Amino acid sequence: MRIAVDAMGGDHAPQEIVRGAIDYASSSTDEVILVGDSARLEREIAAYGKGHPPNVRVVHAQDVIEMGDHPATALRAKPRASIVVATDLVRDEAADAVISAGSTGATMAAAVFRLGRIKGIDRPALPAHMLTPTGPVMLLDVGANVDSDAENLVQYAAMGAIFAEHVLHVESPRVGLLNIGAEVEKGDSLAREAHEKLADAGIRFVGNVEAHDMIDHRADVVVCDGFVGNVVIKFFEGITSFIFRALREDLQQGPIAPLALLALRPGFDRMKARFDYERYGGAPLLGVRGVSIVTHGRAKARMIENAIRVGSEAARAGVPDLIAEWTREHPALAHRGVRSRIAARLHRERTRTA
Amino acid sequence: MRIAVDAMGGDHAPQEIVRGAIDYASSSTDEVILVGDSARLEREIAAYGKGHPPNVRVVHAQDVIEMGDHPATALRAKPRASIVVATDLVRDEAADAVISAGSTGATMAAAVFRLGRIKGIDRPALPAHMLTPTGPVMLLDVGANVDSDAENLVQYAAMGAIFAEHVLHVESPRVGLLNIGAEVEKGDSLAREAHEKLADAGIRFVGNVEAHDMIDHRADVVVCDGFVGNVVIKFFEGITSFIFRALREDLQQGPIAPLALLALRPGFDRMKARFDYERYGGAPLLGVRGVSIVTHGRAKARMIENAIRVGSEAARAGVPDLIAEWTREHPALAHRGVRSRIAARLHRERTRTA
């Protein structure tokens, strides 16, 4: 596999991106293509002191899309930005996957506009991994797919199930519908309509899942509208960081606290390992014609290395082809007639101007 | 003030309910009316050993609505249930507020059907208190008001602001709209429409608030559709209990862990105090013609005592009258023409049969 990496995106770019890429390449036969300011990348490679592995290649890109830039506008204004050049390598079949720790909006916009949507998928979706004691739960969409309709939710479900099975290696993944009650008739009009359609989607649909059920790992894949998913994931980040900050403040007071905390260090390390997001590397933008992995802006070398691994596995499994196959097998849920095509176009236009 | 308490509702009823009521009455001039099986309540009062305060009265009700009962059905089947009798005391002006730790659905249904809605309020809303380092944030609706429209959200905002100002004593409460971005144009169609109308609602609207902003206390009142609010609150309960359970498990391992944990006890107590929900007592069902306070099913005496205090303060402040006044001052946002009245009736009917 050939993995294009946007070496200029993310809080710790390019240093940590370069390091993650070299670490990955050193233990893999894949080719890693670092895309960005080539002079600077060569300097970072040299500075890391692990040599220049033969399977690490540098492709020059003169521009960078910054976090503050408006995604769609920046995409037009900077056609030579690293994320665009890296994505175009996938479009031109010179790479099998693209990875970025840069602006999520720009990475998604580049994938949607440069790779295009898979036929039958109205809206590409972005999942997030929620960690539970027994494994991750994929929640999608957490991107910006607001005002989803029932078919959108069914498509998220199918795409999430394909990724969970073929990349996360979950056998026959259980798919749930995020809802406010366990009973079939519960929820808003979207949830009630989606519930019916999910039963015929060729997936293992386990019914409604409440928010706390996710933490109990009642399903492997959970679908919801992007508004709800985005609220949940931002709330999750906010509340966990608040709790750990509060713990630190509250426990560090008093004369013997430092000693007691030292004694509990192994316990805190076990706790930290439970919330180890880095091992999941990143999340795939599902529904575009190619593999595009979005990783965290704060990603350091280890997480970048894992994100490249996820991209490689998704490309090897042929996730976009599997999704396309699902759309062909479920024409009623995938292709949605004139009204839906108009809705999809309006959505595209809104995405462009938003 | 005369406060009717459903003495039979909740996991620890009637014992803890009776205790909370006696504790409240001992330090207040309010009258507390315990509603339930009178013989049993008299026994509990005697068993508590603090005497029978003159301002605690018992009103007999022979039935109880159980947690598993369907709210609307149970309401019809058990007209002599404690929650119905207690709510009717408010309707008949024999009490100024009603408190229940029983089924939230039954308490809400009793309030809606026995007290009725305030004119101009289409849907009564239930808030939840989210604790932050600097004070609580009221999130509403977390009840079951799904498929809200923009006017509903504006009404939640006005009702939440009135409660925050007059009962929580927050001066000029900041009201935010839960959204997935800070910019005006962000969000789904509901959020974008509500954003416009909130500016003219006679409240201190501070704009969009993201989920993590709630934890940073960027607003005192945050409004959202009941589907989103219900998901957030259930997720919050799930994630906090998971983190604390995990901490216990992870920290208790190893020979010196018990001693170290003992040394950190004051720190853990400080942490526990941050998550002390009991002090807020309960949440008001806003928009009905009377004061109805829903408290937690697991509430013990201290929380019941606080819930009675909240009910007394809300009644003294005249919260329902203040809401009615707001609807008269904002006819465009409150009274919504024929189409809306039909929608409200359909919602009522769905609530009845759901």
Please tell me about this protein's structure.
The structure is a homodimer of 354-residue chains. By secondary structure, the first copy, chain A, is of the alpha/beta class. Chain A has two domains: 1-121 and 279-354, 3-Layer(aba) Sandwich (Rossmann fold); 125-251, Isopropylmalate Dehydrogenase (3-Layer(aba) Sandwich), CATH 3.40.718.10. In chain A, 50% of the residues lie in helices and 14% in strands. Chain A contains 15 helices and eleven strands. In chain A, strands 3-2-1-4-11-10 form a six-stranded mixed sheet, with helices on both faces. A five-stranded mixed sheet of chain A has the order 5-6-9-7-8. In chain A, helix 2 links the parallel strand 2 (31-36) and strand 3. Chain A starts with a strand and ends with a helix. The relative contact order of chain A is 0.16. The mean pLDDT of chain A is 91. The interface between A and B is large, with 57 and 57 residues.
Gyration radius from CA atoms of chain A, angstroms: 21 Å
CATH architecture call of the largest domain in chain A: 3-Layer(aba) Sandwich
Distance between the termini of chain A: 35 Å
Q: Kindly state the mean pLDDT of chain A as a whole number?
A: 91
For this structure, the quaternary state is homodimer
Major sheet of chain A, described briefly?
6 strands, mixed
User: Order of SSEs of chain A, N→C?
Assistant: EHEHEHHEHEEHEHEHEHHHEEHHHH
Task: Write down the domain tally of chain A.
Answer: 2
Output the keywords.
homodimer; 354 residues; alpha/beta; Rossmann fold; Isopropylmalate Dehydrogenase; 6-stranded mixed beta sheet; 5-stranded mixed beta sheet; 11 strands
